Amino acid sequence: MSDRSAIEWTEATWNPVRGCSKVSAGCKHCYAETFSERFRGVPGHPFEQGFDVRLVPEALELPLRWRRPRMIFVNSMSDLFHEDVPLKFIQQVFGVMERASQHQFQVLTKRSKRLVELSGDVPWPTNIWMGVSVENADFTWRVRDLQRVPASVRFVSAEPLLGPIPRLPLRGMHWVIVGGESGNKARPMSVTWVQSIRRQCEFRGVPFFFKQWGGRNKKAAGRLLDGKEWNAMPLSSQIS
């Protein structure tokens, strides 16, 4: 947990759950798993249990102690809608987000079926943004699921982008993030895949954010697409 983050599209991270398990191709080289497993067995370390899923109730009220409003990425080291996270605990997390109305919370999941299943059991104040990860065209059904969720801001994270998505469902979406995979085993991303998604966003009037090219040295690869950075965020008029 940190009130600062190096992730380009957020300001802080909050992890009331730690650990996850793989569900699709985008999980293959999970950065969170790689980091967590380095500390498996280290007594007292937050990741003493490696990447095994576990609840962190002592972290629940952390955002309530952050007075300065900020953008908070929820569970950067897990998935809130993992099947091993009980509904009661998910409701507690949403309750904290509702109470901490000074912040904007960004929740991201690959488990969109469970998201839809539980969406009627949690509150949806305007400060909760809900997103799904879509790594290629095989998983656009996650966006279809997200369209059924009553969040004020719904977004798509195409990171790592592993293939073309010629028809990204953008109805009811307020934001799209695209990024390449990073690390020593990073799979390549084609510029044409990124340009296609950007054009779809432009046509539909959806803010487009390009996070990174990735690769073995993501800093060297940079963030420029067609000679510029793309840093659009959801418009305040969309948050209603």
Describe the structure using short key phrases.
7-stranded parallel sheet; 6 helices; pyruvate-formate lyase- activating enzyme; 16% strand; 9 strands; alpha/beta
Structural features, described:
Helices cover 21% and strands 16% of the residues. With 240 residues, it is of the alpha/beta class. It has a single domain, classed as pyruvate-formate lyase- activating enzyme, CATH 3.80.30. The strands form two sheets. Strands 1-4-5-6-7-8-9 form a seven-stranded parallel beta sheet. Strand 4, helix 2 and strand 5 form a beta-alpha-beta unit. The radius of gyration is 17 Å and the shape is globular. The protein starts with 11 loop residues before the first strand and ends in a 19-residue tail after the last helix. The model has no long low-confidence stretch (mean pLDDT 95).
